Amino acid sequence: MATPVDLKAQRRRRPRRSLSRERVLRAGLEITETSGLEALSMRRLAEALGVQVMTLYYWVASKDDLLDGIVDLVLAEFVIPEGRADWKARLRASILSAHEALERHPWACPFLMSPRRIRPARLEFIEAILRQLSDAGLSAELVDHAYHALDSHLLGSTLWEAGYSVETAQVREEAQAALLELVLATYPAIAAHVAYHGRPRHAGEVDDFEFGLDLILDGVERLRTAAETA
């Protein structure tokens, strides 16, 4: 029969039944979303879950493992394109799903571009995009160009939107007003652009990301057709 000391040691070693890797990762993601990536630490995570720091190491091997895990949660929101019919529609829906996921989690973009942190789910997404382009009958050269155009549009546009939003939010209201007054008085083309952005949007209007995505896909389709008829 186990002694009271043995039972206490077992309880210390055994993680709480209510805890799981999924719950740990979700809590890490919540901290990152609400307080920023720099606020995520094993201590902060343990406090949020109401456990000792060492308990977390039953579920995540290290801080890097934790980061990889929460990036995987973001990647799980990407829709993988499947099938061969209507390749443009499938690619469009897939890239849009990834853009929307990265809009929700803009901190994840640098992780997706880091060779140190390339994840199996990221490779599966790339594989599916390349397969869709190849199955559409594109040449190897056009597959290469199309993939890089799509991937750079996905990551670049999301990073640009996130950075612009943060910088704008950090500028004080009176400074924004002064800058806007200068722009309106001195740069008429920019003033017209600002006015256009401020107008009421109508139902079904395509946003900037979709506009760029459609330009890429339509351009790829034209090049594909031209190659077939050459």
What does this structure look like?
The protein is mainly alpha-helical. The chain folds into two domains: 4-74, Arc Repressor Mutant, subunit A (Orthogonal Bundle); 83-229, Tetracycline Repressor, domain 2 (Orthogonal Bundle), CATH 1.10.357. Helices cover 72% and strands 0% of the residues. The protein is built from twelve helices and no strands. The chain has helices at 4-13, 21-35, 42-49, 53-56, 63-75, 87-104, 109-112, 120-135, 140-170, 173-186, 188-198, 208-229. The protein starts with a helix and ends with a helix. Mean pLDDT is 85; it is low at 7-12.
Catalogue the unreliable spans.
7-12
* Count of discrete alpha- or pi-helical segments spanning 4 or more residues: 12
Termini distance? 84 Å
* Largest sheet data: none
The average pLDDT score comes to: 85
CATH architecture of the largest domain, by name, is Orthogonal Bundle
Brief sketch in words of this structure:
The chain has 230 residues and is mainly alpha-helical.
Helices, strands, pairings?
Elements: H1 4-13, H2 21-35, H3 42-49, H4 53-56, H5 63-75, H6 87-104, H7 109-112, H8 120-135, H9 140-170, H10 173-186, H11 188-198, H12 208-229
